[in-house]
Amino acid sequence: MHALKKNRPLRRIVLASAATVSGMVLLLSLKPHTGPTLATADTKSPSVSSGSAPAGGSTPGTKGAVTKTATGETVQTRWGPVQVRVTIRSGKLTDVTAVQYPRDNPRDQEINSYALPQLRREALAAQSAEIDMVSGATYTSTGYKQSLQSALDSAGL
Question: Fewest CB atoms within 10 Å of the CB: 51, 97, 114, 152?
Fold first, then answer.
């Protein structure tokens, strides 16, 4: 016998109600991604600044070394903008900082809390934008690499 026979309306009502409740639970459990926040700085063009390292804060062998700071272009990814700033001292990449990255929801924060340090280490070790992507953070990694290359190009490295 078929479960939804017309002579058993109560069974159909129970099954239809259970399907409706299950569908509503699934729909309500989805959390929409909020849109990226707008950047307040000019994100169209990368910026470069340079100057001498302070004599008091320099380490032996870096006295008088020229330090350049360059901010890469903002790269729009599926989950939000990614932008990095690099510091170059005496022609060597010494620091990479993520200025903008997706952080609008807990999942973005979780992904980027492990991805950004790995990308930074990769960039400092490679001294270039030729770095490995971080598994699970493909969009952030792609944006990071593009912005890093833009910053390095602006700084002349």
Answer: 51
R_g of the chain computed on alpha carbons: 25
Q: Residue 20's pLDDT is what?
A: 93
Enumerate long-range contacts of 53-56, CB under 8 Å, 24 or more apart. Answer: 53/89
Angle, nearest 10°, between helix axes 106-126 and 138-155?
40
Domains within the chain, CATH numbers bracketed: 1-30 (no CATH), 47-53+65-155 (3.90.1010.20)
Whole-prediction pTM = 0.60
With tokens 């100057």, the residue in question is 51
Please write the tens of the pLDDT for every residue from 6-23. 677 788 888 899 999 998
3-state secondary structure of 86: strand
pLDDT category, 154, cuts 50, 70, 90?
confident
Q: Which residue has the tokens 């593009």?
A: 146
With a cut of 60, say whether residue 34 has pLDDT above it: no
For 119, the enclosing helix (H) or strand (E) is helix 106-126
